[in-house]
Amino acid sequence: RKKCLLCTNVLMIMAASIMGCSKIAQSFELILIGRFLCGVSLCVPLHHQYAGEISPKKLRGFANSTSSFFWSLGKAIGQISGQRELLGSQYLWPMLMASCGFPALVQLVTLPFFPESPAYLLMHKGDHEGCKKAIRQLWGEGHHQAEIDDFMKEKATMKNTKILSVLELMKEPAFRWQLYMIAVLTATVQLCGINAV
Asked: Hey, what's the signal peptide range on this chain (predicted)?
């Protein structure tokens, strides 16, 4: 999880650099390429997963809601700083386009000091000691055996569950309506007024 987040941050910094250089290069195509790279980065789902896995059970819902809050806050800050009086001027708009690289840079610098997800270490790597060490680093000293037992139950459940590829998932009739629902919700999220909120 952590390595994937780090790689995604590198991708975001590349995208910000490309968009920031578009005026110097006099190429609107660089903006399109940069926005495409921003779109294919996995920041939001990875943040949800990592934040949910490193937080204690009682704070998991709160930790997962932080990405939605900061996503909306980022949109609001982008719209405010995009005003002509701020960064939306003829000379400063490349800085506005490149500003998406700043949070990625902060995360790229700070994330190496965080441990890997305890659930990932235990369920995918089979590293019991690494899991316990990560839990102590994240949640402090204490009795965390209940959480470790929950991870083990989830791992046992996963062994009996067939992992589908994306193509298999799309072909599976049992998941068709869920996929339609997710696609419609994702496609229409811009129409729901979240930017205004």
From this structure: none
The one-letter amino acid at 113: F
Q: Classify the C-alpha dihedral 28-31-37-39 as positive or negative.
A: negative
pTM of the model as a whole: 0.69
Residue type, 79: Q
How far is it, in rounded angstroms, from Cα 74 to Cα 97?
13
Q: How do residues 64-104 score in pLDDT, each as one tens digit?
A: 777 778 877 888 888 888 888 888 888 888 888 888 888 88
For the chain, give me the number of helices (H) and strands (E)?
12, 0
In angstroms, rounded to a whole number, what is the distance separating the alpha carbons of residues 87 and 191? 25
User: pLDDT, tens digit, for every residue of 37-57?
Assistant: 887 776 667 777 777 778 877
Given a contact cutoff of 8 angstroms between Cβ atoms, the answer to whether 127 and 121 are in contact is: yes
